[in-house]
Amino acid sequence: MNDFERLGAFYLGAPVDDAFERAAEPFLYDASDLTTHAVIVGMTGSGKTGLGVALIEEAAIDGVPVLVVDPKGDLGNLALTFPELRPSDLEPWLDPREAEREGTDLSSYAAKVAEDWRAGLAAWGQDGERIARLRGSAPVTVYTPGSSAGVPLSVLGSFAPPPPTVLADREALADRLAGTAAGLLALVGRDPDPLGREHLLIAAVLDHAWQAGRELALADVIRGVQAPPVKRLGVLDVDTVFPASDRMKLAMALNALLASPSFEAWTRGEPLDLQRLLYEESGRPRVAVVTISHLSDAEREFFLTLLFSEVVSWTRSRSGTTSLRALVYVDELFGMMPPVAEPPTKRPLLTLLKQARAFGVGLVLSTQNPVDLDYKALSNAGTWFVGRLQTERDKQRLLEGLRAASGGVDVAALDATISALPKRTFVMRSVHEPEPVVFQTRWVMSYLAGPMSREQIARLGELGLNAPPGAGAAAAGEGAGAGGVASQTEPASAAARSEPAAPSAVGAGGDDRPIVPPHLPELFAPAARPGGRVRYYPFLLGVADVLYRSKTHGVDEERRVSLLLEPQEGPVPVEWSRAEEAGFALEEAASSPAAGAGFAPLPEVPLNAKAVKEWGELFERWLRTGGALRLWRDPASKLTSRPGESEQEFRLRCAQAAREARDAAVAKLRERYGAKIAAADKRMLREEQAVAREQQQLQARAVNVAGTVLGAFLGGRRSLSTVANRAAQGAKDVGDVQRAKERYAAAAREREELERGMLAEVEELQRRTVHPEDLRLEPVVVTPTSRDVAVRYLGLVWVPFARREERWERA
Question: Coil, strand, or helix at residue 551?
């Protein structure tokens, strides 16, 4: 194992001395220190990008997922990792003009660059094998919101509700609402003032839908602005605060966005879901590079506000941890968090700086403009990496900010050091270290080809270098046959948004209300999207309270199960394994239909009392078999998944628990070996002092013997026997020196053995570390008994559908 391949430590480079000469030992940064966030400051050409890439590479190798915000297009280079470092790998990314300046053709130039790159890696103890390890640890995907050059991101297709944990936290929900409303207003050129009436109205429209568990399309937001779902904004009527004529102007601005030819690009691609960005379905971590260099300033502000708000929501939905769970890297902070202004991006960033550390999410913020930093906000950053600065004014502004943010900073010493910094050299000031550390950054493993254009990003996909995202977070209960009820893993908000598939007879039949037998209960489902004439279609609704209990697996939970099923003609008209989530509460169903609604005919199946009773028995039987609670267990950690936790989430929780256990084990190793190594250091010091002392005595004895011999020959009083005695004592002193050296060598060997033993134990811990996708999970089934199932409703429910855009949709 290389000296820098340490568990939970990031290999960033090597320390330098006062003359900026590189030391032999590596500079290792503790990964857990990033939970207190970091700031990188340096002028163009100082090496900020290299340091940032090194941090991201080390995080990926350590199994930590990374979200990268790339305003300039530099960090798409993270996809350029070539383990074999062949010239043909590098050739598509070289500038032909450079080859011309070298007086050679592109192929020869590529061969020279590949050789230089290989030599640069070797100088830092790295090779193609480590690059292969990087590629295998976390795939890199380059996203391009509003463009199809890379993997597009859909941010305007819908405004989905945040996770239940955020909905339950009013402060967190307010932040999410404020960020979404402000970003949308910024996109259409309106004032995003959080106290402005436009902001308040859009936030109210979103809040009303999210509280009901519904997601909104932009068209729904426009309709909500025209006909608000709330009557008041504060204590005043909506029409008083925001008259209908003024609301129409806002609706027209939003509609112009909807009608814009570029709008479609914002609705295609992967959904803006951080879980999907950071992890594959198997739980394997990913590096998600979100490039926004192609966006206008308004589009950037809109997108980043939504992105940072999504990060806040995701962070708050995690459990607390002291280990690094995920890294968020922002390459250029300019304009996102200024010291005075309040752009929409600032609020979610401030929230992350204050709260993310408790959830193991670290921020790394990079900038070349020290005057653009809100140092009061950045007082939450525990680590500062400072490189060369543009002007004396930049340096003084940074030093003032550091003194205000960190306190206790020796400004004079830092001033002198920063002024002399060469390229790729940084001063690290960390609250976790007693003194600043000056280090040179290592050679990165990703080929830095410079800022990527749209054409180059598209080329990544053509060459297979832009890893397509996986299926994302496993949908709860996929494959269960009942819309997720079998595994009981779908969050409440998602279940509330699910809709039954269009019935097979949709669009057929007349409008008259059929006569339902008196022994068959009858209800009317609420309309998810009121408005327009609807037609009701018959479904079978089964509602039951089910108690899942298992002392072995620590489960004791009661669930309300609501299933919709369309009876089918044939020998088996009711098969509950085909049922779907109802998507509405039993209490929300009405006893009478909406005025003016039409009706489809009843299904051609038996509706007698015996058949209805049999349906109820089949429903209860299915709940005790197919409706059992299906969980997973990890034998290694002895953890069992929680009800409502997907397999992917459980794998990540097990991996996080393993990481925490690893960090704790490493801390114990350091503590155990630290005392022994400190004792060995003291012994070495004592023996070193003994060697020096014995050597001094030997030298003094040699001088004394020489004087005695000279005196004897010159007729002094000392006899030859005295000379002989002193010579013998000198020989003894030589032996004492030799024995002292042997004792020092033994102490040095003991310390070396202790260091080697600690590294061996750390390496063993590293070998035992299992990645989420490699966990061997065991299925666990919690089956309710007949006493644990209480059927609350079994009967007919009429579900409203409406015809929209040439197709039938749930009304």
Answer: coil
